[in-house]
Amino acid sequence: QVQLVESGGGLVQAGGSLRLSCTASGRTSSSLHMGWFRQAPRKEREFVAAISRFAITTVNADSVKGRFTISRDNAKNTLYLQANSLKPEDTAVYYCAASDNWMTIKSKPDYWGQGTQVTVSS
To answer: Where in the chain does DSSP place strands (E)?
Structure first.
């Protein structure tokens, strides 16, 4: 069973930066495609970014392109999301996700973390 644990959320002013981390256990992370989603209050969960097993391919949502960078360190079984130039509309619970299949990582991941809160003040 894969377990995903996020960390690094918090309160930041608009224009600031945060780095989220997600540590995977139960399986070697290099066997999984991984990604980030977020859910703002009263909104549906949305895709943010994804990265393939060996970081050959990354995909970002249009809303975060040029501001957020997804990366991974398979030796540490850890996924990262560097979030720069944060805006109040980035406020959400951020979830780490993982999939065995690249085709599902953006839409229906197999595994989910419990989430970490990011709040951006104006």
So the answer is: 3-7, 10-13, 18-25, 33-39, 46-51, 58-60, 68-73, 78-83, 92-99, 111-112, 116-121
**Residue 23: exposure state from Cβ atoms within 10 A (0-12, 13-18, ≥19):** middle
**CA dist., res. 17 & res. 3, Å (int):** 26
Of 98, 108, 106, which is closest to residue 32 (Cα–Cα)? 98
Q: Which residues contact 53 (CB under 8 A, 6 or more apart)?
A: 30, 31, 32, 33
Confidence of residue 22 (pLDDT cuts 50, 70, 90): very high
Cα 20 to Cα 118: distance, rounded to the nearest angstrom: 9
- Is 5 buried (19+), middle (13-18) or exposed (0-12) by CB count in 10 A? middle
- Both tokens of 99, joined, read 């999939």
pLDDT of residue 29: 75
- Mean of all residue pLDDT scores within the chain: 96
Going by C-alpha positions, the residue among 112, 83, 116, 110 that lies closest to residue 4 is: 112
